[in-house]
Here is the input.
Amino acid sequence: MIYSNNSPWLDRSLKLSPKLSSLCAPFLSHTAENIAKKGGKRRRRDAVENIKTALSVILANLLRSYVLHPSHGVRVHLSNDGYPKGTFNPNRLSSRTVGKVVRYLSRSNPPLIHKQGGNFDKGRRIGYPTEISPSGLLIELLLFHTHELIDTYNNHILYNHSITRNAFKLNKYIENYRLIFDRSDLPIICLRESSSKSKSGFIEFEHTAETQSMEAHLGRYN
Here is the structure.
């Protein structure tokens, strides 16, 4: 993995579709249970579900990034204020849960993701956010289930052979985007608390007829 500032940030509104999640259910459940167990506390069902959601978001982002830009990873916020509550965080991610998933996947044996960055170079005064990319084992697992989903949905014959990383073409990914991913709609109009760096987060606001009209116009243009 080559660290790249061109790698996209984690899209917190994107996760695996319910159909693909169902095919990946054994892996998602087993991994979430193991991550919860690492905490050494009683595994609450809601905590396990939150971990599964964060895992689904991370896997969806890694799959999309791999298909579109195989040489790039995904940059991930791990700071305490990286996932504020509200409509801009529809899957209710938290930095703590995302951090647990990233650490578990990178430290598994064999590793399921490769991780770089997450440090600050004091000499150069440059920060390097955490960047992750899928291992060959993880991407083959995701592509296998993605092929299985597409073939089943389109009533194709399923052949009993492994799916290699070279077998998934970009056009197949694009044609079946809505089948593979589940994406929450985010507000088009964003309002920040303040122009200052310390208070630059997005805030909720009441929609009016004017803002709804603006969103409708922007939606048509895009």
